[in-house]
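Risk mitigation, structural track. In case the binding assays with adenosine-5'-diphosphate fail to produce interpretable data, a predicted complex structure has been prepared as a fallback.
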Amino acid sequence: MSALSITGLSKTYRDKKLQKVNALVGLDLAVAHGEVFGFLGPNGAGKSTTIKSIMGLLKPTAGTIQVFGVTAKDPESRRRIGYLPENPSFFDFMTAREYLKFVGSTYGMELSAIRNESVRVLELLDLTQAADRPIRGYSKGMVQRLGLAQALVHDPDMYILDEPMSGLDPIGRALVKDIIRDLKQRGKTIFFSTHITADVEAVCDRVGVIAKGVLESVDTVDNILEKGVVGYAIRFCRAEGAEEEQLVSREELDATLRQLLESSAVIKTVEPKRKDMESFFLSVVLRS
Ligand SMILES: Nc1ncnc2c1ncn2[C@@H]1O[C@H](COP(=O)(O)OP(=O)(O)O)[C@@H](O)[C@H]1O
Ligand SMILES: [Mg+2]
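Fallback model:
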């Protein structure tokens, strides 16, 4: 049994003129226990629509979702999930510590456990100093980090995170990546959305690329990166001329070099061009 399983998920919204917007079209996806799955797509691709459907926050037009074997229609399915919404906002008259107490109590945690876990997650997200100040005085990055803290406080088994690195500075981003790696070490399942390929490359086991509501590709990060060298860049000069560059495939390489040398060009460098996550993402999105 998968930790998260989505079958035939579709969502059609109506815009202000009551025109149909097909935000998701027949999405099938399974995330294994203990897996870190990156849900990568440009703005408007349907990431938040998928995540809100998992969280029971909107009603899909079609399809089924199961979390640890429980249908997402049943609020029980949310008990083992830590959720970070895309634009977290909180009762801002509360302090972070008060807010975590509120969240912990909605999960039925004992007061002593809430106290201990709050200390732990506030420290983890570097919010200890600010923990007893009202949230209204927090910076955007602090609010985002509190969003993660409240997803962690009941130590759930699955994490559904909508753009967890958004609005964070480089230190905050590194911190969130460390937290995701640490959760994985502890056997947790993580599903997070992003539009930044480097975030996926750094922490994910598998990546699904979504564009215009369609899941275009699902593969392991290792596979995507190992498909490896996609061509060679030859830099050369012809007599007296400026430096030029030519891109060729492996098959064309020898003949092209020979031709260049025969025409008295001077070869400066020959460099393999590797496929990276960014170019993979662009190639999938552009053909969608
Ligand atoms: N409440 C809504 N009413 C109408 N259209 C919506 C609504 N929410 C999202 N959409 C549209 O659905 C598509 C997918 O949006 P969303 O899931 O938020 O994408 P992402 O999170 O990948 O940026 C977009 O075209 C967006 O404009
Ligand atoms: Mg979104």
